[in-house]
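Researcher: Next sequence.
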Amino acid sequence: MKIKIIVLILCCTSLGAHAADLKAILSFPDKFNEQAVEIEGELIGELLKSTDGFWANILSDGLGIGFFTENKTIFDKVSYWGAYQIQGDTVLASGTFYKDCLVHGETDIHLQRLEVIKPGNVEVVSVLPFKRKLAKIFGIICLTLLAIYLIKLLVIRFKHGKRT
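Model: Next structure:
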């Protein structure tokens, strides 16, 4: 009886989307070509409009891939898109992977479903006081060197009779 249940579970999961990380998909694109896949990762950049639909990018395990969809409302629940000092929403994206998409001419995923797993947030990055002082000191040094250079330049021109 246990074997029948295990076989039934394996059959049901094999009919659904392949839950794989992006590294595995991009490492073995022939295996996943034109297959339903699910990827968990951070939405980055912004939603881009094209002539035939919309593009979004997802970052998963340090790798990124573009998603294409004709349905903009899929992204209605997205609050944050990853950027500098912004942690994008973590999503579970389901769609069909294309190694060489005939429509778009590149590797992409045609998105069918997007679920926000964890909302993103704005990250506050503060500069340490030590780094602020160091920047001021280097600024003063640079301005001093610039002043010395300009003074030497004026002295050389004045000695050669070329007044400015």
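Model: Helices lie at 2-15, 22-27, 29-32, 129-159. The chain has four helices and eight strands.
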